[in-house]
């Protein structure tokens, strides 16, 4: 931080400034105290408050994660249901191979191949970045798509969306195998339940049985697993954001790690922990509405 | 597990599982062969500058040349050695540590078990790739770092599976009988419980190898892997990324497809082995 030529006094002064000369438990307690006051400290690198840098990077990652989830669920869920309905048939094996293939594509390879195929070859979507120009974006939530929609600035909205398609697909392909696998298992499990037999015996149409009775129950484990794996998305967003040059949390984490900026690392870990806890709490509460059998 | 029963089980497995196992085995054996003999197959050294820079693929340079005029084909083939050796070292380390700890923790239980379980859970819950990046960044890039980072990340997986197998087997009558005639815990684990690990270990090893290749190349991609000019797929992929805007696809597509193929091979193998070796688990 001070370079190789710093004198002993300079080093001591900085150690004192950062509080490294105090006992560890005092450092820990004071960090905790600050944390409760939403003070995450200052970045050792940029000397800006950690919370501000995280706040700036946060919307990017949220947008990326939401779009990734939309892609993953929109493709993975129907595939899982289809595989369950065609269980043991050629279609099932084909889908299993397909999801194993997706599972074997590392994010950085998927991302680069998409960039090459769609952006460079077909010239259709932007290669990287969040937006063409940041000039005329209103600053409300930091989520470009939402902000431009709120201000009815559709040109900017489409631009932001276009920038999100490839990163979203990349994250989606990363999530797809997990989602389709769990939904397939959930669907098969649901289809063997007694109420399915009852529904069929009542003479309901097969589509009603599948979609109203089985599918809704198959959703539960899928949602649980998505929540449980939310933390893993940080690793995923780190690579996706690197490939697509997005200024998000994963990228921030990577920069913090490579410059040993540990107040930043701590800050991001705390924020991510909070996100994971929040998401899982929401899912737990959501159960009540999805599954009336659950009572608190 | 003796060989004959293993083959019999393979024969009894569903055709789809057989196909997957065979496909995985072919890819994995091919990769390992490339790791050993690959450098004899290529005309140029992986670090040798052989001609003009950024040549597209041709009969002379099957995968073109890179920004320093090195033959991409030679680099991709030679890169196998690094990925395979990192996964070999990493998987062996995590398997030894994870199995040892898992066996003891499951068999003896008590406070040791509880402490280990908490530690492993903490490791497990942390996103594995982020953890690997953290370890690699602290220790500096290199083959040892990559292996260690991958090994540490994978220990909990081995630990949890082995521990749960131990927990179920330990309640069996024959273990109780062994205890009754005075066999020590170590002896029981090594001679009577460990054989039950084998079929799961095979699955975990190939799953771990896939994971190891993913993480190693990921670290390389972020510039934390095996330092250049060594041929490593992830590092080459990141270097080639600068040129995709100019349409020079061969710098990224070939290393990328190689990573995909390697990961796919080990994933297929683990999936197939799981279906063949653990048929008693009801697969949905």
Polypeptide structure, described:
The complex is a heterodimer of chains A (296) and B (284). Chain A contains 12 helices and no strands. Chain A is mainly α and 296 residues long. Chain B is mainly alpha-helical and 284 residues long. Chain B contains 10 helices and no strands. The model of chain B has no long low-confidence stretch (mean pLDDT 86). The interface between A and B is large, with 38 and 39 residues.
Which parts of chain B are unreliable, with pLDDT below 50 for 5 consecutive residues or more? none
Order of helices and strands of chain A: HHHHHHHHHHHH
- Domains of chain B, number: 1
* Structural class based on helices, strands and sheet pairing of chain B: mainly alpha
Distance between the ends of chain B: 26 Å
Number of helices of chain A: 12
In terms of DSSP E residues, the strand content of chain B is under 5%
- Assign an overall shape of chain B: elongated
- CATH architecture annotation name of chain B: Orthogonal Bundle
> How many strands appear in the DSSP assignment of chain B?
0
Q: How far apart are the first and last residues' alpha carbons of chain A, in Å?
A: 52 Å
Outline the low-pLDDT stretches of chain A. none
Radius of gyration of chain B: 22 Å
Largest protein-protein interface = A-B, 38 and 39 residues
CATH class of chain B: Mainly Alpha
Structural class by SSE content of chain A: mainly alpha
Summarize the entry for a quick read.
Chain A is an all-alpha fold. In chain A, 73% of the residues lie in helices and 0% in strands.
SSE map:
The complex is a heterodimer of chains A (296) and B (284).
Chain A: H1 8-18, H2 24-36, H3 50-85, H4 90-104, H5 107-121, H6 144-150, H7 154-191, H8 194-201, H9 206-228, H10 232-243, H11 249-258, H12 262-290
Chain B: H1 3-12, H2 15-41, H3 72-108, H4 110-125, H5 128-139, H6 143-170, H7 173-180, H8 185-221, H9 233-240, H10 250-277
Helix pairs in contact in B: 2-3, 2-10, 3-4, 3-6, 3-8, 3-10, 4-6, 5-6, 6-8, 8-9, 8-10, 9-10
